[in-house]
Amino acid sequence: MNDPINNRYDFVLFFDVKDGNPNGDPDAGNLPRVDPETGHGLVTDVCIKRKVRNYVQLEKGGTNGYDIFIKERAILNKYIREGYEALGINLNEPPIDKKDGEKRKTKGGAQGGEIEKGRQYMCRTYYDIRTFGAVLSTGANAGQVRGPIQITFARSVDQVVPLEHSLTVCAARSEDKSIEEQIGIQGRKFTIPYGLYRSHGFISAPFAAQTGFNQNDLDLFWKALVDMFEHDRSAARGQMATRKLIVFKHESAMGNASAHKLFDLVKAEATTNPVRDFSNYTITVPTQSEVDEIAGKSENNVSKVAIEVKL
């Protein structure tokens, strides 16, 4: 279970929101993100990864190998420096290995083979680096990591309609101001009545081999995608839930079919207009035989791409 995964995976994730703001746009006063040309709602890949990170942090509590690198108020260069300290590498002294140079080119910065040691340590220690990758070339410098899992923006299946709500305050806070000027309309809240969002993801076995991403990590990732909204509640986000997670597992590390052809087999269609609930959608999941028509079977009659519905 500790060996890196050796299969490629592609997946389709459906999640929805009701009377909430799934991902506010800071460039538009925190309005829900929307494609201005089509009216479809958007949720960034960064937003989805943030929820995965938060879930893993709650699930594992920072235990060895499952700490989170990108977290709130973190000082990233400090974590990189502490990694070298844990390896016993003093970045204020000349490199121990002469192959790495006679002296340091940058004070407090790793160089040569030290960088690879630092990169490997960061991958072993932090789940999100091992999963999504990270830029570690600042500060003490532990290079760059390209993670095995990449996720697209989520786009709503149909158009969404952002709504604006006035917020009123009935209690004053300050004794130095009159009550009248502190109560009444004091802010705005933005929501969409309902939206079903679809995102695509890709998992590379070759990159998993580079970071050490293993089956335990993968199982935790699936669990995080299914349950990430259960501990991410807030008044602003309304009701959000993962509705469907469809996984395509390839027989080989490099893959046995084009991802876009597999994704095209998964369809979501509204049965009413307007849509106000997940029950108003029909999601079509392809059969194994439909997948085999694209990917084929191996010589021993085993499907080259297996389909699994996680939720």
TrEMBL record:
Source taxon at top rank: Bacteria
Which residue positions does the secretion signal occupy? none
Pfam families attached here? Cas_Cas7
Q: Where is this region: Disordered?
A: 91-113
Membrane-spanning residues where?
none
GO BP term (any one): maintenance of CRISPR repeat elements
Official protein name in the record: Type I-C CRISPR-associated protein Cas7/Csd2
Organism listed in the record: Candidatus Brocadia sapporoensis
